[in-house]
Design brief:
heterodimer, A: 114 residues, mainly beta, 11 strands, 0% helix, B: 112 residues, 6-stranded mixed beta sheet, 4-stranded antiparallel beta sheet
Chain lengths: 114, 112
Amino acid sequence: DSGVTQTPKHLITATGQRVTLRCSPRSGDLSVYWYQQSLDQGLQFLIQYYNGEERAKGNILERFSAQQFPDLHSELNLSSLELGDSALYFCASSPDRDSNTEAFFGQGTRLTVV
Amino acid sequence: GNSVTQMEGPVTLSEEAFLTINCTYTATGYPSLFWYVQYPGEGLQLLLKATKADDKGSNKGFEATYRKETTSFHLEKGSVQVSDSAVYFCALPMTGRRALTFGSGTRLQVQP
């Protein structure tokens, strides 16, 4: 158990809809990262928050957004969903602002868009 | 920017065989290097890491040495088990150290 909790584990929704994925980082970790894992794109970095502030953006679509709340949990919002958004979405956390140390991953949310 | 390239899979081995999964990197400076493992249905977990050149990371019988001369961090294990069947990812921090960037992953299947 990494200490990172993601909910829900599975999500099935229709095209055009909006969903919210939730992540609770390890106790004490200030950084939260979101990654998308798909068969054709591999593991893609989406966005990082550190202590409530956005720190870095990766390959995140404009239809996607995220935030980190004062209690450090984070949510990833995906809107106007398309079939190609079907993937595993991972949250990871680490204590540091920089990524030169280990990141701890949750078990992921599997999103299926039909 | 920083990037990693790892060998394509899948790799299929018999139990007790020797394993090598190649990983080469491009980086500014000398960032930490990581190997993560993903077992079926689970998230990624750190397998081992090395923080500077010539460091050897090791865990659960796996080893990898940070070689700056060849910009490599190959993963090795002397005798694989069926329980080692998983996907292995090489990783390093992105330029600016804002997040880890991962290789494409190598699927290992170990047959009894």
